[in-house]
Amino acid sequence: MKFVSFKSCTAAKIIFPFCSLFLAVASYARDLTGNWVVRNPQPDGTSRDTYLDLQQEGSKVTGHIRVTQFYYSIVESSGGPDGFLLTGSMMDGHNERRVKYEVKLVGGELHVSTLRRPDTELIEMVAHPAPPGEGALPSRLPLPELHAVPDNGLARTPPMGWNSWNKFAGKVDDAAVRAMADAMASNGMKEAGYEYVNIDDTWEGGRDAQGNITSNKKFPDMKALADYVHRKGLKIGIYSSPGPNTCAGYEGSFGHEEQDAKAYAAWGIDYLKYDWCGARTLYTDEEMQAIYQKMGDALLKSGRPILYSLCQYGRAEVWKWGAAVGGNAWRTTGDIRDSWDSMTKIGFAQGEFAAFASPGHWNDPDMLEIGNGGMNEDEYKTHMTLWAILAAPLLAGNDLREMAPGIAAILTNKEVIAIDQDKEGKQGRQVSKSGEQEIWARPLSGNEQAVALFNRGTEAAEITVLWTDLGLKSAPAHIRDLWAQTEGRLDGGKYTRMVPAHGVVLLRLRSN
Ligand code: GLA
Fold it and tell me: Is the Cβ–Cβ distance between 279 and 293 less than 8 Å?
């Protein structure tokens, strides 16, 4: 019986898991035993490599497959004269991840193919022999005892700024960061309160002989870049992971926490986003707190005030311990996408974390997508309003050089920003819900309140707020519509407005 390859599977549009059923064991391919590497050099001077460390005994292949941040043990293998199908498995928190690789010896090369998901293109690669041990996962390091990391005194209101990931992803470079700083300093954003210019993943190079972290070719001089951003009256942020690799497969801070924190301080970095990523291959979710504490301590020891932003997708109930590890913000969710569904799924599910937000310590439902093109202006107003009601960090994620006036107006509406930045730092909650219409309220300092009338439906709808639902005995003395920038009319015990499809009316109420 013939080895049925991924190729014939995809061609025949047979879904992937069935392919393995057609595999038969006959005479076996030549011995695959060895450490194999697929090198994938990048223009930034780094390399995203895949390792297959294999041992073959007859029909059985065991070993490991390392795909940058992921490290799989081979749990199933089946093969025939034309090659093998290998199944790799790893635990990611409480979930299992599985991959399948088809491997075949051709001369001295190992031809490898895989499907990332059953519905994606076949990825074909060629692996060559690598020295034994290269690419092996480092051993776990002992966990520190838990203790309370002192508060760094930063982020008394939710951080505001820009982050490179949503728009630039792997394409961010020194020039883009300078351009964003230029734009932010001159387009009204700085004046509106935006402050941090944050470099996300893919800036990392490797380590020098002393283990110091280096930046890659896209970032020739981090200190010079930080100086540039500071000269604009702004602050600069950077990104790393507690694992050996970041999510994009770049160098992480594993085992170098203090050294990296010192490097950031020496460059003049003001903000660190610390992303679980490759740490999942070494540690369990229950061990996250100790791992995040390590960097919390290291940042304090660095001698420079560095805002500490945790990114571990809201796992292990981070809102309960984020502040104890020195965190100023912690992600409560997986990654946002520039779509109405993604944004609302995340934003409207944040109410349960409200009690855990306070000055210096914020729930983070992920960065803004405003201006990236996947939503209309009413939807982006809903995004901005919801994040303001949630006391969320406001990190713009668009290209600040090319903003339509409507988008700039949404990002820089000072009255909406004032809701987000209210100094009491109390996160808002849902007050009532009727079908696809929801009313959320946020208590503000001075006994004021922000009230948002959200219409999640696809038709315009009337929404009525009852003063009693907001804990008020009578109509507030002042009511201001923060998007229309008008004073509203008061009407007995309730207030009614027509709200556009996927839109919002945001009100600020004052009682005297
Ligand atoms: C994860 C994070 C994102 C971004 C990418 C970078 O997915 O959640 O916000 O930082 O990694 O690789």
Answer: no
Helical axes 288-301 vs 257-267, angle rounded to 10°? 40
DSSP for residue 286? G
State the burial class of residue 106 (Cβ atoms within 10 Å of its Cβ: 0-12, 13-18, 19+): exposed
Given a cut of 80, whether residue 306 has pLDDT beyond it is yes
- pTM of this structure: 0.93
Residue of 68, 245, 335 with the most ligand 1 atoms within 8 Å of its CB, for mutation: 335
Distance between CA atoms of residues 382 and 268, nearest Å: 35
Most distant CA atoms of the chain, gap in Å = 87
Nearest to 7 by CA among 89, 104, 76: 104
Cβ < 6 Å from ligand 1: which residues? 165, 200-201, 246-248, 275, 311, 335
Question: How far apart, in whole angstroms, are the C-alpha atoms of residue 484 and residue 259?
Answer: 50
Letter for the amino acid at 103? V
> What amino acid occupies position 2?
K
Distance of CA 183 to the CA centre of its chain: 23
Which uninterrupted H or E stretch holds 479?
A: strand 478-481
In sign, the C-alpha dihedral spanning 409, 412, 418, 420 is: positive
Ligand 1 centroid, distance to 311 Cα (angstroms): 8
pLDDT in tens, 75-125: 999 987 778 999 999 999 999 999 999 999 999 999 999 987 777 788 999
